[in-house]
Amino acid sequence: MNDSGLTLEGIMLSAAQFAQLIDMVTDKTISGNSGKVVLNEMLKNGGDPAQIVKEKNLAQVSDTGFIQEAIEKVLNDNPKEVEQFLAGKETIVQWLMGQVARATKGKADPNVAKELLVKALEARRK
Fold it and tell me: Please, what's the b/e burial string for 50-88 (b: 16 or more CB within 10 A of its CB; e: otherwise)?
């Protein structure tokens, strides 16, 4: 509110809309960062959180096929980092996660993505 210059009286946000937004973050429909974007939009212009998510294409993706495709591309595009992981440098997983997030434009559910990434890396050990 400080950044936007809004006052409490000027906020066009109902308790029900705010609760809906919280539920969307809690049930992982959107990420915490996307939740901030939606809240900002709701504070500025009002509106339904689900509609804002749809309009701005902010929904998080848990589709394993989509995420797996992005992971395979990242691993194929970064053979040096894959070799580092296979040589025992497990901290490289965080860097690879960043690449997956970039490839999916931040839409991949991070928990699903990490699980699939580790499985894909372990499969390359064999």
Answer: bebbeeeebbbbeeeeebbebbeebbeebeebbebbeee
Structure pTM?
Answer: 0.69
CATH number at residue 111: 1.10.10.410
Query: How many domains would you assign to the chain?
Result: 2
3-43 confidence digits (pLDDT tens): 656 666 667 788 899 999 999 999 888 888 889 999 999 98
Of 9-18, 50-59, 102-111, the poorest mean pLDDT is in 9-18
Nearest Cα to 28, choosing from 124, 112, 119, 125?
Answer: 112
> What phi and psi, each to the nearest 5 degrees, are found at residue 45?
-120, 0
Identify whether 3 is part of a domain.
no
